[in-house]
Amino acid sequence: MKRVAVDxxxxxxxxxxxxxxxxxxxxxxxxxxxxxxxxxxxAKIRLANKVETLSxxxxxxxxxxxxNKVLIDYRQNWQKIHLRGIQSAYGKAPFFEFYFxxxxxxxxxxxxxxxxxxxxxxxxxxKLLQFKGKVTVCENLSEEQVDLDxxxxxxxxxxxxxxxxxxxxxxxxxxxxxxxxxxSIIDLLFCMxxxxxxxxxxxxxxx
Length: 207
Description:
The protein is α/β, with parallel strands linked by helices. The chain has six helices and six strands. α2 (78-90) runs antiparallel to α3 (96-108) and α3 runs antiparallel to α4.
């Protein structure tokens, strides 16, 4: 049984799901600390003429806090911005009408913490991908026996080519002639639907 420890990203990138694809159990912890400039509160989508970053604003400038203590800043109108951005980017995608109703209520909901939002998003994404493994919440990941620990590895500032999980496998995207790799998983879901898992399998880096 393969156990993988992960950071709880917001709408994780494709590399994240490729890395956990063969996991029987995914381990997450609300006690993991928030990291600045990470995917914990941001995700990348493709608009008509650029790649856009969706960012969830948090309270406080540099909170050295566990994820379940990091509060989302609802004074900013980020929910409508995210929903509008996703609709603009993927409203004409083949599977938008099928998958968007799963995501919309989560983005419209007021979550108590970044942990709560990210956990609900991960649960939905795994469901839409028909992921067979289970997610386990642990108090202390450092005390768990794991087969793979990818915490702190998948970061916006470090290209995926530096790691041994993901290689870009082009699929049909809505905009542009050049394929844009490693966007949020919603890009793959909206564009490829039930074929998304096959794309993930084809994206495993061959060593």
